[in-house]
Amino acid sequence: MAFDGITIAAMVQELNKNLEGGRFNKIAQPEADELMITAKGPGGQKRLLISASASLPLIYFTEKNKPSPLTAPNFCMLLRKHIGSGRILSIRQPGLERVIEFELEHLNEMGDPCRKRLIFELMGKHSNIIFCDEEGMILDSIKHVSSHMSSVREVLPGRHYFIPHTQEKADPFTIEEGDFIQLVCQKPCSISKAVYTSLTGISPVIAEEICYRASIDGSDAAQSLDEPARIHLYHTFLRLIEQVKEGSFTPTILYREQEPAEYSVVPLTQYGSGYERKTFDSVSSMLEAYYAEKNVLTRIHQKSSDLRRIVQTALERNRKKLLLQEKQMKDTQKKDKYKVYGELINTYGYGLEEGCRSFQALNYYTNEEITVPLDPSLSPGDNAKKYFERYGKLKRTEEALTEQIEETQSEIQHLDSISNALDISRSESDLSQIKEELTQYGYIKKHFSGKKGQKMQARSKPFHYVSSDGYDIYVGRNNFQNDELTFKFASGNDWWFHAKKMAGSHVVVKTPDGELPDRTFEEAGCLAAYYSKGRTAPKVEIDYIQKKHVKKPAGAKPGFVVYYTNYSLMASPDISGLKEL
């Protein structure tokens, strides 16, 4: 979710609660576009991180410190000189703009009190931190914006500060019903887009939420709303804005498939039961948790990109190979026809004239008369020999292709399972096992370090869940873990689950006597569905069987097993109700 005006309103409330009336103690600039301010207020000493990054502008309290350069940048030195021990008079947000203004008081060289404004603009690529005097003249900024860079506003020392209005947006706090209907409901676009492009500080997610609360499809045309729907939309919007004015915020992160999908400081009712909600005591803790988890997932995805490319390339190559092999196999179906031709020539060819191009004969296999083509330059015996040689060649080709197709299908199945393991990876140790498997099977070249007997050891452990009835459920993260889980960890009476005819993790439910409640069967099935290639489908067919009936063929690839007498169930890939240890 964008760092929108409503999130900033909640953050301003938190800033006032902790810092209003307090003082700045320390100002650091750890990055070119980032400040770390330590201040003491009613809430005690706090560390405030402000980022004017174009990709991720943020402001929140944090316990973590960041190292600063040995020589402070000029902007940081200027702030230290003027407001290094400044007293915070007020913290405010103009309208619902993505702007936070600190008004500070300090003593000048003569000992007289002076006021300054430190302004944080959190506007995506236009984000900036601007330092102004009491009259609004810019003293300096963390990013200088010249007329060559922007035709709307220069951000340079000596220029007058103002908030740029590049779009005709209304203030959500003051807009009246008539103006709302005129501004929003007359736009030639969807309703949700009309809301967030017409009102300051409203993000697309909040616009969709307003439409959802008003029981209106946000993708419908704004001009299609009738009068009652327009009035209802305005009053729904008004109730949300009243909530913001009152400072009634509930910082929440929504998780989808255990990954942070969205955050908000107001309840998002548009997201259904497929999302797990986690509330926080403060906006800062919500933001820090959300972006920390996002960064971990992003880092793992980046680190796995090379492995994904290797797997995807191998998959594409094998799928093309399989298509070619299947086409060649289709061509071998002609072999029986050539065998019949040869036999019919040997049976009826004794009376053929020299130079004959074909003859009619009764096919005694089907009791039908067929035409047998002949090469006029060859004798009947040589024609028969030619057809038998062609039959023999196609038969040998069919036998070879049958084996090759099985190998290619096995290769694709193996690569699909590795691709699934990459999808569910959460740590670098998960990736190291996958890399080891790809190296072992020749997809990655092995680099020798010169140390004999050295082998990469698996450090990650299977996912561990507890069912609603208290049974331990284990899920393999990759093929090596699947083998270990099924054939070394699980005992004979334990139950084994796997998505039917698709790549997925082995799921084992521990039980001493082989008895499980129905609900545990269903929950284990949900885990097998979630940790499979079918996780995006509404339902997945799951095979389940006691572990003692699961076998591994000799020489089979990791994760490959066979079983013959299994049960089946349909499971939803929703594990939001399960507890992970």
Automatic annotation (TrEMBL):
Q: So what family is this one in?
A: Belongs to the NEMF family.
- List each coiled-coil range: 391-418
**Cellular component per GO?**
RQC complex
- State the Pfam families in the record: NFACT-R_1, NFACT_N
**Gene encoding it?**
rqcH
Domain NFACT RNA-binding per the UniProt entry, residue ranges: 461-555
Query: What is the annotated quaternary arrangement, including any partners?
Result: Associates with stalled 50S ribosomal subunits. Binds to RqcP.
Q: Where does the secretion signal sit in this chain?
A: none
HAMAP family cross-referenced by the UniProt entry: RqcH_B
- What does the record list as GO biological process? rescue of stalled ribosome
One term of GO molecular function: tRNA binding
Q: What is the name of the protein in this document? A: Rqc2 homolog RqcH
Recorded hits in Gene3D superfamilies, A to Z, give: 1.10.8.50, ibrinogen binding protein from staphylococcus aureus domain (2.30.310.10)
Primary role: Key component of the ribosome quality control system (RQC), a ribosome-associated complex that mediates the extraction of incompletely synthesized nascent chains from stalled ribosomes and their subsequent degradation. RqcH recruits Ala-charged tRNA, and with RqcP directs the elongation of stalled nascent chains on 50S ribosomal subunits, leading to non-templated C-terminal alanine extensions (Ala tail). The Ala tail promotes nascent chain degradation. May add between 1 and at least 8 Ala residues. Binds to stalled 50S ribosomal subunits.
Q: Which domain of life is it from?
A: Bacteria
InterPro entries xref list: NFACT_RNA-bd, RQC_Subunit_NEMF, RqcH_bacterial
Keyword entries, A-Z: Coiled coil, Protein biosynthesis, RNA-binding, rRNA-binding, tRNA-binding
